[in-house]
Structures are given as C-alpha cells and as structure tokens.
TrEMBL record:
It is a multi-pass membrane protein. This is H+/Cl-antiporter ClcA. It holds the Pfam family Voltage_CLC. Coiled coil: none annotated. It comes from Algoriphagus aquimarinus. SUPFAM superfamilies: Clc chloride channel.
Length: 421
C-alpha cells in the first residue's frame, strides 16, 4: 500500500469504527440495563414464569411474521461474511432485543452475547449503503460490529476484538481487520461502561499456583473435560433445534411447547438456579463447592431453551457450565477451586466456539494476567478436544485441527475441504 492508501484506510476506519462503536456500545448498554430490570423483576415475581409459553408464542410469531432471514441469528452474520449476498436487515436489532428480554423476563435459560453481537453486526451493516463500501470493507465493518457488541456486553475490549477476528475468519485473520476491530471494541466498551455507566461482574481468582510440571500436567484432564463439555453443549443445542423443527411445523408453536416444559421443570425442581443468565451461580463457583451436576443441568436447560426458538446468547450459559464444571473437578484435580472455575469459564467457551485465543485473552482481562498460562493451555486443549463442533452451525471449520479417539489413541485430524475458502 502507498501512503495515500494508508491514509485513506486509517481515516476511513477511524470514522467508521467510531460510528460503529457508538452504535453498538449504546445498544449494548440499553440492552444490559433492560436485561437487569427483567432479571430483577422475574426474581421478585416468580409467578411470571408460568407465562413463559405465552412469551414464547409472541417471540416465535414475531420472527415468523417479520423476521425473514433474521431468524438465523449469529449464523446470518457468518453467512454474509463468507458470501456477502445482501444487507443484514435493521429489523434484526429490535427483534433480537425484544426476544431476548422476553426470554429472560419470563424464565428462559439463555445468554446475552448473541443479542449484542447481532445488534452490533446489524447496526454496523447499515453504514455500508451510506459509505458505499465494497465487499472487502463490508466484511471488515461486520467484524467491527461484532467486536463492538461483544466487547461492550462483557467489558472485555481486547477479547472482543480477537473474538470477532477469530470467530468470523477462523485461521484466516487478515491484517486489514485488526485496527477496525480493536478501535471499535475500545470505543464500544467506553460508551457502555463510561458514557452509560453500565458495570460488569467481577470474578476473583485469588490463588495461582507455581508453574511446575505437575501443576501444568493437571491442566490436561481438565482441558479435555472442558472441550467435551463444549462439544456436548453445541450438539445438544443443534439436536433440540432439529427435533423441534422436525416435529412442530408451525414455528411460533415451538417456543410455546418449549416454554410449557421449562416452566414445568422450574415448578417441579422448585429452583430458579438454572434459568436466566445464572450470574450469581457463576460467582459462587469461584468461592465455594457446588453440586456436581450444575454444569449438566445448565447445559440441558439452555440448549433446550434455544433449540425451542427462544432468543438470547450461548456464551454466559457456557460460562456457567464451565465455571461449575471446573468447580466440580476441584474434587479430583489438586488445583485451586477458583482457578479451575476460571479455566472452565473460558475453556468450555473455547471448545464450543472454536476461539481459543479470544478466550485466553478474555480470561486474563477478567481474572488477571497471572493465570494466563493455565487459562491458555486449558483453552487450547478444550479447543482441540471439542472436535468439529460449534454452537454456530455456519462457522467455517474446514481447516480446524482437532483430536479424536481412533483405535484407542488420540489422533490429529483436519478436513482439507476447500469449501468457503
């Protein structure tokens, strides 16, 4: 690139990154403020969970009537990155915001990352027509929108930028995307945290053991467990989605049936531990031993909720699953409980989304850089042992190396298909 091209590139993405950061950061702030209200209201009025089937019909009908391709959620962002066929509709933002708030208000088990990412990508893509961006720049602005949404909803700007790059351009990160992703993530995080004053949950890993060979070797069985858990989460979500689509042909009816069963589960179990985000339970996982089955219950309820057609994200439930699984593993693995919870927090996320770099950086941003070696190894092992699974069905994993059992040993495998290259 000559000096004129570099100047145009920098100027263009300073302006676009600022605009996308303002939009995505403000959207995440409004979303988080509303989500906190919905969670508090539900916990103070538990009877409202009985209305989850009605909320499910409203969500299902809204997407059926007005959603068009917005129903694909995060997968639509990936499809457009790979194929750049048509603009992401602006309606995706209010639909996913409305659907996620209703899901949480009435007791579904879901997260928030998917909502923030979809709002960020949808709002960012609206700028394409005003700035007349060509296909390569449109890909970059989609990545910037995802970075802004992710960074602002979790308060992790570095991880937000890396997640967008790693998730959307798996093993093919291009240098032109680096500055827009990071700049947008920083702006969006500042808008959400400083301009709107939205706080984020803090987690404490108070003890990091020495990096001895024995301590590092204990990461291996933990990482394998996290990878298999991420794989179970992804496959369970796809399984329930397939079953609902196969057996219930009218889409608005799927979350109605799902809502009835979820409300019945809450009533029979007499517990709201596994619905909503589950952040209080995640915090507990860093502090005290919990029932061993917490991670399994959250996996089942969240995959069922999302498979039935309710809206939200998967990442916070993955945090819940990972932190409580790490908590359970502390019974057998001689590493500090909080460290294992932190390793699981990002490790299961890494396995389910195939983003080990982003998850490692996120862990260091949340728990401190002292735990980085443990987090990084756990994320890498989880990534390798999750196989060719992803919570995002459109994610391009053609070149992913992974480990799978074959004839009694574990073997490296790679799909060499050129699809979507």
């Amino acid at each position: 690139m000559n000096s004129a091209s570099i100047f145009r590139y920098v100027l263009l993405w300073i302006v676009l990154g600022l605009l996308v950061g303002l939009l995505s950061g403000a959207a995440s702030a409004i979303f988080l403020i509303t989500l906190n209200w919905a969670t508090d209201y539900r916990e103070s009025h538990l009877w409202i969970i009985a209305l989850l089937p009605i909320a499910g019909f409203v969500i299902g009908w809204s997407y059926y009537r007005y959603g068009e391709n917005s129903v694909k959620g995060n997968n639509l962002l990936l499809d457009e990155l790979y194929k750049t066929e048509k603009p992401i509709p602006l309606r995706m933002t209010p639909l996913v915001l409305f659907g996620t708030i209703l899901t949480h208000l009435f007791g579904g088990s879901a997260g928030r990352e998917g909502t923030a990412v979809q709002m960020g990508g949808s709002l960012a893509d609206q700028l394409t027509k005003y700035f007349k961006l060509h296909s390569e720049d449109r890909r970059i602005i989609l990545i910037a929108g995802v970075a802004g949404g992710f960074a602002s909803v979790f308060g992790t700007p570095l991880a937000g930028a890396i997640f967008a790059l790693e998730w959307m351009q798996h093993r093919k990160i291009r240098w032109k995307s680096l500055f827009p992703a990071l700049w947008t993530a920083l702006v969006a995080n500042w808008v959400c945290a400083s301009l709107f004053g939205v706080g984020h949950t803090h987690y404490l890993v108070d003890l990091v053991p020495p990096h001895t060979l024995v301590n590092l070797l204990w990461i291996i069985p933990a990482g394998i467990a996290f990878g298999l858990s991420g794989r179970l989460f992804a496959q369970s979500t796809h399984f329930f989605s397939h079953q609902f689509s196969k057996h219930i042909t009218y889409p608005p009816l799927r979350p109605v049936i799902g809502g009835l069963l979820i409300a019945a589960f809450v009533y029979i179990s007499d517990s709201t531990t596994y619905i909503g985000l589950g952040v209080p339970r995640i915090v507990e996982a860093f502090e005290t031993p919990l029932p061993w089955y917490d991670w399994l219950a959250k996996t089942g309820l969240t995959s069922f909720t999302l498979g039935a057609g309710f809206k939200g994200g998967e990442v916070t439930p993955l945090f819940f699953t990972g932190a409580t699984l790490g908590n359970a593993l502390a019974t057998w693995i001689p590493l500090p409980l909080a460290l294992l919870a932190g390793m699981g927090f990002v490790g299961v996320f890494s396995g389910a989304t195939n983003t080990p770099m982003a998850c490692t950086v996120m862990g260091m941003e949340l728990f401190g850089y002292e735990s980085g070696i443990f987090l990084g190894i756990a994320c890498l092992i989880a990534y390798l042992f999750s196989g060719r699974s992803s919570i995002y069905s459109s994610q391009n994993l053609d070149k992913k190396f992974h480990l799978y059992p074959a004839e009694g040993i574990f073997t490296f495998s790679r799909n060499s298909s050129k699809k979507n290259d």
